[in-house]
Automatic annotation (TrEMBL):
Residues 20-155 form the AAA domain. It holds the Pfam family DUF4143. It comes from the Bacteria. Residues 227-405 form the DUF4143 domain. Coiled coil: none annotated. This is ATPase. It comes from Bifidobacterium hapali.
Amino acid sequence: MLRRKMLDKLISWKTKSQGREALLIEGARRVGKSTIVEEFGRTQYRSYILVDFARLPRDIRDVFDNQRDDLDTFFLMLSAYYRTKLVRRESLIIFDEVQQYPQAREMIKYLVADGRYDYVETGSLISIKKNVADIVIPSEERKLDMGPLDFEEFCWAMSEELLADAIRGAFESLTALPDALHKRAARLWREYLLVGGMPQAVVSYVEHRDFGDVDDIKRGILQLYSDDIGKFAGGDAARVRGIFAQVPGQLSKHEKRFMLSSIDVAARMREYDAAFFWLEDARLVNICRNATDPTVGLGLYADSRSFKCYLADTGLLVSQIFADRETTTDDVYRDILFGKLAINEGMFTENAVAQQLRANGRALYFFSRNNREDATRTMEIDFLIVRDYDNAALKPRISPIEVKSTKRYGVSSLDKFRNLYGSKRLGKEYVLHPRQLEVEGERVRLPLYMAHCL
Protein backbone atom coordinates (compact mmCIF):
# COMPACT_ATOMS: atom_id res chain seq x y z
CA MET A 1 0.00 0.00 0.00
CA LEU A 2 1.48 3.33 -1.08
CA ARG A 3 1.64 6.03 1.56
CA ARG A 4 -0.38 9.03 0.31
CA LYS A 5 -0.80 12.49 1.77
CA MET A 6 -4.51 12.30 0.96
CA LEU A 7 -5.03 9.91 3.87
CA ASP A 8 -3.92 12.61 6.33
CA LYS A 9 -6.33 15.05 4.67
CA LEU A 10 -9.17 12.55 4.99
CA ILE A 11 -8.43 12.01 8.68
CA SER A 12 -8.33 15.78 9.25
CA TRP A 13 -11.65 16.16 7.43
CA LYS A 14 -13.27 13.48 9.59
CA THR A 15 -12.11 15.19 12.78
CA LYS A 16 -13.25 18.66 11.75
CA SER A 17 -16.50 17.88 9.94
CA GLN A 18 -18.04 15.57 12.55
CA GLY A 19 -20.59 14.45 9.97
CA ARG A 20 -21.69 17.98 9.01
CA GLU A 21 -20.53 17.65 5.40
CA ALA A 22 -19.61 15.06 2.80
CA LEU A 23 -16.27 15.00 1.02
CA LEU A 24 -15.86 14.78 -2.76
CA ILE A 25 -12.44 13.68 -4.04
CA GLU A 26 -11.88 14.63 -7.66
CA GLY A 27 -9.04 13.37 -9.81
CA ALA A 28 -8.04 11.69 -13.03
CA ARG A 29 -8.60 8.00 -13.50
CA ARG A 30 -5.95 5.71 -12.02
CA VAL A 31 -4.52 8.19 -9.50
CA GLY A 32 -5.62 5.99 -6.58
CA LYS A 33 -8.84 7.62 -5.36
CA SER A 34 -10.71 4.39 -4.70
CA THR A 35 -7.70 2.77 -3.02
CA ILE A 36 -7.14 5.62 -0.57
CA VAL A 37 -10.80 6.00 0.44
CA GLU A 38 -11.02 2.25 1.10
CA GLU A 39 -7.89 2.50 3.24
CA PHE A 40 -9.54 5.41 5.05
CA GLY A 41 -12.70 3.38 5.66
CA ARG A 42 -10.76 0.33 6.79
CA THR A 43 -8.48 2.14 9.25
CA GLN A 44 -10.66 4.96 10.59
CA TYR A 45 -14.14 3.38 10.95
CA ARG A 46 -15.70 0.30 12.43
CA SER A 47 -17.21 -0.51 9.03
CA TYR A 48 -17.57 0.92 5.55
CA ILE A 49 -19.51 0.27 2.35
CA LEU A 50 -18.19 1.12 -1.09
CA VAL A 51 -20.83 1.62 -3.78
CA ASP A 52 -19.10 1.50 -7.18
CA PHE A 53 -21.30 3.41 -9.62
CA ALA A 54 -19.12 2.35 -12.54
CA ARG A 55 -20.39 -1.21 -12.00
CA LEU A 56 -23.67 -0.59 -10.21
CA PRO A 57 -25.77 -3.74 -9.80
CA ARG A 58 -29.38 -3.38 -10.87
CA ASP A 59 -30.58 -4.27 -7.36
CA ILE A 60 -28.63 -1.36 -5.83
CA ARG A 61 -29.75 1.03 -8.55
CA ASP A 62 -33.33 0.11 -7.62
CA VAL A 63 -32.56 0.92 -3.98
CA PHE A 64 -31.31 4.38 -4.94
CA ASP A 65 -34.23 4.96 -7.30
CA ASN A 66 -37.01 3.72 -5.06
CA GLN A 67 -35.94 4.14 -1.44
CA ARG A 68 -34.35 7.60 -1.43
CA ASP A 69 -37.33 9.04 0.46
CA ASP A 70 -37.24 6.30 3.10
CA LEU A 71 -33.75 6.36 4.57
CA ASP A 72 -34.43 3.66 7.17
CA THR A 73 -35.24 1.19 4.41
CA PHE A 74 -32.46 2.60 2.22
CA PHE A 75 -29.77 1.90 4.82
CA LEU A 76 -31.26 -1.48 5.74
CA MET A 77 -31.18 -2.71 2.15
CA LEU A 78 -27.72 -1.27 1.51
CA SER A 79 -26.38 -2.98 4.62
CA ALA A 80 -27.97 -6.31 3.69
CA TYR A 81 -26.74 -6.28 0.09
CA TYR A 82 -23.13 -5.53 1.05
CA ARG A 83 -23.26 -7.81 4.12
CA THR A 84 -21.91 -4.99 6.28
CA LYS A 85 -23.33 -3.74 9.55
CA LEU A 86 -23.60 0.03 9.65
CA VAL A 87 -22.91 1.65 13.02
CA ARG A 88 -24.31 5.10 13.77
CA ARG A 89 -21.50 7.73 13.60
CA GLU A 90 -18.89 4.97 13.23
CA SER A 91 -19.43 3.86 9.62
CA LEU A 92 -18.46 5.33 6.28
CA ILE A 93 -20.39 5.07 3.01
CA ILE A 94 -18.33 5.64 -0.15
CA PHE A 95 -19.88 6.67 -3.45
CA ASP A 96 -17.16 5.64 -5.93
CA GLU A 97 -17.19 7.13 -9.46
CA VAL A 98 -20.24 9.16 -8.48
CA GLN A 99 -20.24 11.00 -11.81
CA GLN A 100 -21.72 7.83 -13.30
CA TYR A 101 -24.90 8.35 -11.25
CA PRO A 102 -25.37 12.07 -10.49
CA GLN A 103 -28.64 11.44 -8.62
CA ALA A 104 -26.62 9.85 -5.81
CA ARG A 105 -24.63 13.05 -5.50
CA GLU A 106 -27.84 15.00 -5.20
CA MET A 107 -28.89 12.73 -2.29
CA ILE A 108 -25.90 13.89 -0.24
CA LYS A 109 -27.90 16.86 1.09
CA TYR A 110 -30.42 14.57 2.75
CA LEU A 111 -27.93 11.93 3.83
CA VAL A 112 -25.77 14.50 5.63
CA ALA A 113 -28.85 16.05 7.25
CA ASP A 114 -29.84 12.57 8.48
CA GLY A 115 -26.50 12.46 10.30
CA ARG A 116 -26.11 8.72 10.85
CA TYR A 117 -22.94 8.10 8.83
CA ASP A 118 -20.06 9.81 7.06
CA TYR A 119 -19.90 10.08 3.26
CA VAL A 120 -17.01 10.29 0.82
CA GLU A 121 -17.54 10.55 -2.93
CA THR A 122 -14.92 10.01 -5.63
CA GLY A 123 -15.16 10.98 -9.26
CA SER A 124 -13.77 12.54 -12.38
CA LEU A 125 -15.40 14.81 -14.95
CA ILE A 126 -17.60 16.04 -12.10
CA SER A 127 -18.32 19.43 -13.65
CA ILE A 128 -19.06 18.64 -17.28
CA LYS A 129 -22.57 19.49 -18.41
CA LYS A 130 -24.02 15.98 -18.57
CA ASN A 131 -22.93 15.23 -14.99
CA VAL A 132 -24.57 18.27 -13.42
CA ALA A 133 -27.66 18.56 -15.63
CA ASP A 134 -30.98 18.31 -13.77
CA ILE A 135 -29.43 17.89 -10.29
CA VAL A 136 -28.99 20.32 -7.41
CA ILE A 137 -25.32 20.41 -6.33
CA PRO A 138 -25.29 19.86 -2.55
CA SER A 139 -23.90 22.73 -0.49
CA GLU A 140 -22.98 20.15 2.16
CA GLU A 141 -20.20 18.86 -0.09
CA ARG A 142 -16.55 19.82 0.31
CA LYS A 143 -14.11 19.13 -2.53
CA LEU A 144 -10.50 17.94 -2.56
CA ASP A 145 -8.29 17.29 -5.59
CA MET A 146 -6.17 14.16 -5.78
CA GLY A 147 -3.42 13.77 -8.34
CA PRO A 148 -0.51 11.44 -9.05
CA LEU A 149 2.21 10.95 -6.44
CA ASP A 150 4.41 13.99 -5.88
CA PHE A 151 8.15 13.58 -5.46
CA GLU A 152 7.97 13.25 -1.67
CA GLU A 153 5.41 10.42 -1.96
CA PHE A 154 7.66 8.81 -4.58
CA CYS A 155 10.53 8.89 -2.06
CA TRP A 156 8.29 7.20 0.50
CA ALA A 157 7.41 4.50 -2.04
CA MET A 158 11.12 3.95 -2.71
CA SER A 159 11.74 3.42 1.05
CA GLU A 160 13.55 6.75 1.29
CA GLU A 161 11.49 8.28 4.10
CA LEU A 162 14.56 9.51 5.96
CA LEU A 163 15.94 11.16 2.83
CA ALA A 164 12.56 12.82 2.25
CA ASP A 165 12.67 14.19 5.81
CA ALA A 166 16.22 15.44 5.23
CA ILE A 167 15.16 17.21 2.02
CA ARG A 168 12.29 19.00 3.74
CA GLY A 169 14.48 19.92 6.71
CA ALA A 170 17.16 21.33 4.41
CA PHE A 171 14.55 23.43 2.60
CA GLU A 172 13.12 24.82 5.84
CA SER A 173 16.55 25.74 7.18
CA LEU A 174 17.92 26.77 3.75
CA THR A 175 20.92 24.53 4.33
CA ALA A 176 22.42 22.38 1.60
CA LEU A 177 22.31 18.62 2.03
CA PRO A 178 25.62 16.77 2.41
CA ASP A 179 26.98 15.99 -1.05
CA ALA A 180 26.27 12.24 -0.83
CA LEU A 181 22.61 12.85 0.05
CA HIS A 182 22.32 15.54 -2.62
CA LYS A 183 23.49 13.10 -5.29
CA ARG A 184 21.11 10.44 -4.05
CA ALA A 185 18.18 12.86 -4.05
CA ALA A 186 19.10 14.13 -7.53
CA ARG A 187 19.19 10.56 -8.83
CA LEU A 188 15.77 9.85 -7.32
CA TRP A 189 14.40 13.00 -8.93
CA ARG A 190 15.57 11.83 -12.35
CA GLU A 191 13.95 8.45 -11.77
CA TYR A 192 10.75 10.23 -10.78
CA LEU A 193 10.78 12.24 -14.03
CA LEU A 194 10.78 8.98 -16.01
CA VAL A 195 8.43 6.88 -13.87
CA GLY A 196 6.02 9.66 -12.92
CA GLY A 197 3.46 9.45 -10.14
CA MET A 198 0.71 7.13 -11.39
CA PRO A 199 0.39 4.57 -8.56
CA GLN A 200 0.38 1.46 -10.77
CA ALA A 201 3.58 2.62 -12.52
CA VAL A 202 5.27 3.45 -9.22
CA VAL A 203 4.41 0.08 -7.67
CA SER A 204 5.81 -1.71 -10.73
CA TYR A 205 9.05 0.28 -10.57
CA VAL A 206 9.45 -0.29 -6.84
CA GLU A 207 9.04 -4.04 -7.29
CA HIS A 208 10.97 -4.64 -10.53
CA ARG A 209 13.08 -1.53 -11.36
CA ASP A 210 12.25 -2.10 -15.03
CA PHE A 211 11.43 1.05 -16.99
CA GLY A 212 10.13 -1.02 -19.90
CA ASP A 213 7.44 -2.58 -17.72
CA VAL A 214 6.60 0.85 -16.35
CA ASP A 215 6.28 2.20 -19.88
CA ASP A 216 3.79 -0.53 -20.78
CA ILE A 217 1.65 0.48 -17.80
CA LYS A 218 1.79 4.18 -18.70
CA ARG A 219 0.85 3.44 -22.31
CA GLY A 220 -2.15 1.49 -21.04
CA ILE A 221 -3.23 4.52 -18.97
CA LEU A 222 -2.81 6.83 -21.97
CA GLN A 223 -4.97 4.46 -24.03
CA LEU A 224 -7.59 4.49 -21.26
CA TYR A 225 -7.62 8.29 -21.37
CA SER A 226 -7.96 8.22 -25.15
CA ASP A 227 -10.92 5.85 -24.84
CA ASP A 228 -12.49 8.14 -22.21
CA ILE A 229 -12.18 11.10 -24.56
CA GLY A 230 -14.06 9.15 -27.20
CA LYS A 231 -16.76 8.10 -24.74
CA PHE A 232 -17.32 11.26 -22.77
CA ALA A 233 -16.08 14.31 -24.71
CA GLY A 234 -19.01 14.17 -27.12
CA GLY A 235 -18.82 16.64 -29.99
CA ASP A 236 -15.54 18.04 -28.64
CA ALA A 237 -13.70 14.69 -28.83
CA ALA A 238 -11.69 15.59 -31.94
CA ARG A 239 -10.59 18.93 -30.44
CA VAL A 240 -9.74 17.32 -27.09
CA ARG A 241 -7.61 14.68 -28.82
CA GLY A 242 -5.91 17.37 -30.89
CA ILE A 243 -4.95 19.38 -27.82
CA PHE A 244 -3.78 16.33 -25.85
CA ALA A 245 -1.59 15.13 -28.73
CA GLN A 246 0.03 18.56 -29.08
CA VAL A 247 1.10 19.01 -25.45
CA PRO A 248 4.60 17.44 -25.85
CA GLY A 249 5.30 19.48 -28.98
CA GLN A 250 4.26 22.72 -27.30
CA LEU A 251 6.40 22.03 -24.23
CA SER A 252 9.45 21.20 -26.35
CA LYS A 253 9.62 24.79 -27.63
CA HIS A 254 11.47 27.62 -25.92
CA GLU A 255 8.21 29.59 -25.92
CA LYS A 256 5.92 27.12 -24.15
CA ARG A 257 2.65 29.00 -24.45
CA PHE A 258 0.06 26.84 -26.17
CA MET A 259 -0.50 27.90 -29.78
CA LEU A 260 -3.77 26.75 -31.32
CA SER A 261 -2.24 27.18 -34.77
CA SER A 262 -0.28 23.97 -34.08
CA ILE A 263 -3.62 22.12 -34.31
CA ASP A 264 -5.27 24.14 -37.04
CA VAL A 265 -4.08 27.40 -38.59
CA ALA A 266 -7.70 28.61 -38.63
CA ALA A 267 -8.44 27.59 -35.00
CA ARG A 268 -10.04 30.14 -32.68
CA MET A 269 -10.05 29.97 -28.89
CA ARG A 270 -13.83 30.26 -28.64
CA GLU A 271 -14.04 27.00 -30.60
CA TYR A 272 -11.67 25.24 -28.20
CA ASP A 273 -12.78 26.60 -24.81
CA ALA A 274 -14.97 23.57 -24.08
CA ALA A 275 -12.19 21.14 -25.08
CA PHE A 276 -9.68 22.76 -22.70
CA PHE A 277 -12.33 22.78 -19.95
CA TRP A 278 -12.92 19.06 -20.52
CA LEU A 279 -9.21 18.22 -20.25
CA GLU A 280 -8.77 20.34 -17.13
CA ASP A 281 -11.93 18.98 -15.49
CA ALA A 282 -10.77 15.43 -16.23
CA ARG A 283 -7.48 16.38 -14.49
CA LEU A 284 -5.50 15.19 -17.53
CA VAL A 285 -3.71 18.52 -17.91
CA ASN A 286 -2.59 21.39 -15.69
CA ILE A 287 -3.28 24.80 -17.21
CA CYS A 288 -0.88 27.62 -16.27
CA ARG A 289 -2.28 31.08 -17.01
CA ASN A 290 -0.47 34.33 -17.63
CA ALA A 291 -0.94 36.69 -14.67
CA THR A 292 -0.47 40.06 -16.33
CA ASP A 293 -0.16 42.04 -13.07
CA PRO A 294 1.86 40.18 -10.39
CA THR A 295 -0.05 40.99 -7.22
CA VAL A 296 -1.19 38.68 -4.41
CA GLY A 297 -4.56 38.11 -6.11
CA LEU A 298 -3.01 36.42 -9.14
CA GLY A 299 -6.31 35.06 -10.40
CA LEU A 300 -7.71 38.57 -10.78
CA TYR A 301 -5.24 39.30 -13.56
CA ALA A 302 -5.15 35.95 -15.37
CA ASP A 303 -5.26 36.22 -19.16
CA SER A 304 -7.36 33.29 -20.34
CA ARG A 305 -6.01 33.70 -23.89
CA SER A 306 -2.37 33.23 -22.87
CA PHE A 307 -1.56 29.96 -21.12
CA LYS A 308 0.73 26.94 -20.94
CA CYS A 309 -0.62 23.39 -20.90
CA TYR A 310 1.22 20.69 -18.94
CA LEU A 311 0.39 17.02 -18.65
CA ALA A 312 -0.87 16.15 -15.18
CA ASP A 313 1.79 13.44 -14.85
CA THR A 314 5.35 13.78 -16.15
CA GLY A 315 5.79 10.03 -16.51
CA LEU A 316 2.87 9.96 -18.94
CA LEU A 317 4.48 12.85 -20.84
CA VAL A 318 7.64 10.77 -21.31
CA SER A 319 5.65 7.85 -22.71
CA GLN A 320 3.65 10.17 -24.95
CA ILE A 321 6.85 11.56 -26.45
CA PHE A 322 7.82 8.06 -27.57
CA ALA A 323 4.34 7.24 -28.89
CA ASP A 324 5.70 6.90 -32.42
CA ARG A 325 7.13 3.49 -31.50
CA GLU A 326 5.21 0.50 -30.19
CA THR A 327 7.30 0.09 -27.05
CA THR A 328 10.06 1.94 -25.25
CA THR A 329 12.60 -0.42 -23.72
CA ASP A 330 14.32 -0.25 -20.38
CA ASP A 331 17.61 0.53 -22.17
CA VAL A 332 16.20 3.72 -23.74
CA TYR A 333 14.99 4.94 -20.36
CA ARG A 334 18.34 4.18 -18.74
CA ASP A 335 20.16 6.10 -21.46
CA ILE A 336 17.97 9.11 -20.59
CA LEU A 337 18.55 8.54 -16.87
CA PHE A 338 22.32 8.66 -17.28
CA GLY A 339 22.34 11.45 -19.83
CA LYS A 340 23.46 9.28 -22.74
CA LEU A 341 20.52 10.16 -25.00
CA ALA A 342 20.12 13.68 -26.36
CA ILE A 343 16.63 14.81 -25.40
CA ASN A 344 15.01 18.06 -24.33
CA GLU A 345 14.97 17.63 -20.54
CA GLY A 346 13.63 21.14 -20.01
CA MET A 347 10.12 20.05 -20.97
CA PHE A 348 10.15 17.18 -18.45
CA THR A 349 11.60 19.34 -15.73
CA GLU A 350 9.16 22.23 -16.06
CA ASN A 351 6.23 19.81 -16.35
CA ALA A 352 7.35 18.05 -13.16
CA VAL A 353 7.64 21.34 -11.26
CA ALA A 354 4.11 22.26 -12.37
CA GLN A 355 3.01 18.85 -11.08
CA GLN A 356 4.57 19.51 -7.65
CA LEU A 357 2.94 22.94 -7.35
CA ARG A 358 -0.47 21.50 -8.25
CA ALA A 359 0.04 18.69 -5.73
CA ASN A 360 0.44 21.42 -3.11
CA GLY A 361 -2.95 22.83 -4.09
CA ARG A 362 -1.56 25.81 -5.97
CA ALA A 363 -3.22 27.23 -9.07
CA LEU A 364 -0.62 27.73 -11.79
CA TYR A 365 0.41 31.16 -13.08
CA PHE A 366 3.33 32.50 -15.07
CA PHE A 367 4.37 35.98 -16.18
CA SER A 368 5.18 37.03 -19.72
CA ARG A 369 5.65 40.44 -21.22
CA ASN A 370 7.01 41.41 -24.62
CA ASN A 371 7.99 45.02 -25.26
CA ARG A 372 9.59 45.62 -28.64
CA GLU A 373 10.53 49.18 -27.78
CA ASP A 374 12.14 48.49 -24.40
CA ALA A 375 14.07 45.22 -23.94
CA THR A 376 14.31 45.80 -20.19
CA ARG A 377 10.55 45.21 -19.97
CA THR A 378 10.59 41.99 -22.01
CA MET A 379 10.71 38.96 -19.72
CA GLU A 380 9.15 35.60 -18.92
CA ILE A 381 8.94 33.98 -15.49
CA ASP A 382 8.09 30.26 -15.44
CA PHE A 383 5.83 30.33 -12.37
CA LEU A 384 4.45 32.82 -9.86
CA ILE A 385 3.32 31.73 -6.40
CA VAL A 386 2.25 33.54 -3.24
CA ARG A 387 4.28 32.82 -0.10
CA ASP A 388 4.55 34.42 3.32
CA TYR A 389 7.60 36.67 3.37
CA ASP A 390 9.74 36.55 6.50
CA ASN A 391 11.14 40.07 5.90
CA ALA A 392 7.65 41.58 5.87
CA ALA A 393 6.17 40.18 9.10
CA LEU A 394 5.10 37.06 7.17
CA LYS A 395 2.76 39.04 4.94
CA PRO A 396 2.07 37.35 1.60
CA ARG A 397 4.26 38.35 -1.32
CA ILE A 398 4.74 37.19 -4.90
CA SER A 399 7.59 34.72 -5.34
CA PRO A 400 8.80 34.24 -8.92
CA ILE A 401 10.16 30.80 -9.86
CA GLU A 402 12.53 29.99 -12.70
CA VAL A 403 13.14 26.34 -13.67
CA LYS A 404 16.51 25.30 -15.10
CA SER A 405 17.28 21.80 -16.34
CA THR A 406 21.02 22.41 -16.94
CA LYS A 407 23.81 23.59 -14.66
CA ARG A 408 24.65 26.57 -16.88
CA TYR A 409 21.92 29.14 -17.24
CA GLY A 410 21.02 32.82 -17.09
CA VAL A 411 18.53 34.65 -14.90
CA SER A 412 18.04 37.90 -16.78
CA SER A 413 14.25 37.68 -16.56
CA LEU A 414 14.42 37.41 -12.76
CA ASP A 415 16.69 40.45 -12.62
CA LYS A 416 14.30 42.46 -14.81
CA PHE A 417 11.31 41.28 -12.78
CA ARG A 418 12.92 42.41 -9.50
CA ASN A 419 13.91 45.76 -10.97
CA LEU A 420 10.42 46.36 -12.31
CA TYR A 421 8.33 45.35 -9.29
CA GLY A 422 10.73 45.71 -6.35
CA SER A 423 10.40 44.67 -2.74
CA LYS A 424 6.89 46.04 -2.12
CA ARG A 425 5.36 43.28 -4.22
CA LEU A 426 8.00 40.57 -4.21
CA GLY A 427 9.28 38.20 -1.56
CA LYS A 428 11.94 35.59 -2.08
CA GLU A 429 12.65 34.48 -5.61
CA TYR A 430 13.54 30.89 -6.45
CA VAL A 431 15.68 29.24 -9.08
CA LEU A 432 15.13 25.49 -9.31
CA HIS A 433 18.25 23.92 -10.79
CA PRO A 434 20.24 20.64 -10.80
CA ARG A 435 22.85 21.96 -8.36
CA GLN A 436 23.14 22.39 -4.61
CA LEU A 437 21.12 24.85 -2.53
CA GLU A 438 22.56 28.38 -2.44
CA VAL A 439 21.24 31.62 -0.92
CA GLU A 440 22.09 35.01 -2.42
CA GLY A 441 20.11 37.65 -0.55
CA GLU A 442 16.49 37.35 -1.65
CA ARG A 443 17.35 34.80 -4.36
CA VAL A 444 17.32 31.16 -3.33
CA ARG A 445 18.71 28.53 -5.68
CA LEU A 446 17.08 25.22 -4.83
CA PRO A 447 17.87 21.77 -6.18
CA LEU A 448 15.03 20.54 -8.37
CA TYR A 449 14.14 17.82 -5.88
CA MET A 450 12.92 20.53 -3.46
CA ALA A 451 10.16 21.74 -5.82
CA HIS A 452 7.48 19.96 -3.78
CA CYS A 453 8.41 22.07 -0.75
CA LEU A 454 7.27 25.33 -2.34
